[in-house]
Amino acid sequence: MADTATPTSPAPVDPASWTCPAPLHDQPVVVMGHGGGGALSAELVEQVFALAYGNATLAALTDSAVLHLGSGPGTARLAFSTDSYVVRPLFFPGGCIGDLAVNGTVNDLAMSGARPAFLSAAFVLEEGVELEVVGRVARAMGAAARAADVVVATGDTKVVEKGHGDGLYVTTSGIGVVPDGVDIRPQRAAPGDVVIVSGPVGLHGVAVMSVREGLEFGVEVTSDTAPLAGLVAAMLAVTPDVHVLRDPTRGGLAAALNEIARASGTGVRLAERAVPVPEPVANACGFLGLDPLCIANEGRLVAFVPRAAADAVLEAMRAHPQGTGATVIGECVAEHPGTVVVSTALGGTRVVDLPLGEQLPRIC
């Protein structure tokens, strides 16, 4: 005889009791994801800082602010950017926090098409850190500045008690000059643009993670940290009408492309097979369950270029030392505005959303 008893009603679900590896959006305190360059970072900036500071220059939310020194035709323009570096460990294959701090700010300026000129450098040192370590970082910064043809013109130093900082943190700010006729910003992405990445992706994030977590992937993975202003200058020499540039650091290509798609109100379509993912990065991501599109880079850029100029720009990129691996990975489309999709190797399509936070925290 069939059991006709009435099923017991499930207990009420209390969302407040859930636990999840990704923090909820209504998190009342700062969590690591707020510094990851993804959705939580965007919410923090938009709902706290942008509201507090409230001005049109900040509202553009670009890698560097473009400042007009006056009004009318021929007005000089400066790019201005600042960034803090809390990478752990301080030294990693291919670089350290010092050259990373210089290259990161130089690259933020270059993403506006600017020629970087001057930097500031502020150190927060932890009591007890060896002066030899501070010296190594400073020397690396000096070498990186000379390589990028910028001057570290001013700075500051503070010390915190032992146990209140991982050795040292660095903040750099930079100023550069934007050439006449250059207008590079995410709002300029347009259907028909060709999307180009300057080289293999994911190397920096995996390099830092490998030494921090003691992981081995058969070969040493080296960070791609490098200055990109020279590469940008070579691209602009072909055409000043490059629409968008972005260095896909925290949150990787996924974060950068989503920000561009949403700012411009267009869609982005990528070809999975075209994205240059080095084998060690692919192996590490497969082992750890990570998406290579979300892994940080520190010496790569992604460009949106009008189709008519794309071949010439790609050729110029490949002729430059920082662009030898430049590859077309997709296009900007009118369909699915504000959304990034990938045509997979199996013939399907998947949406690449803005990461909630950084998969690998403390990588820059």
TrEMBL record:
Residues 63-178 form the PurM-like N-terminal domain. InterPro entries: HypE (IPR011854), PurM-like_C_dom (IPR010918), PurM-like_C_sf (IPR036676), PurM-like_N (IPR016188), PurM-like_N_sf (IPR036921). Residues 191-342 form the PurM-like C-terminal domain. GO terms for biological process: protein maturation. Pfam families: AIRS, AIRS_C. PANTHER family: CARBAMOYL DEHYDRATASE HYPE, HYDROGENASE ISOENZYMES FORMATION PROTEIN HYPE. Belongs to the HypE family. NCBIfam families: hypE. This is Hydrogenase expression/formation protein HypE.
